[in-house]
Here is the input.
Amino acid sequence: MGHNTFSDFVSHMHMRHIQETPKETNYQESGKSFNEYVLSNLDFLQEEYERQKSNQARKKLDELNIPGGMHSL
Here is the structure.
């Protein structure tokens, strides 16, 4: 995924919501507006964004062959 800012991440998640809602409801419903989506999912979005940032940092450390985020001098 890899979004640099929280607003980029939220925009991406809203677009996924808009695309997936009709599929989940047999095309009978449309997705929530951006503001409604953000307000009703703010805690979830913040947790997922923090998880994404943590996973990106872990991946970067793995690429540097630094086990467990620790390195010796």
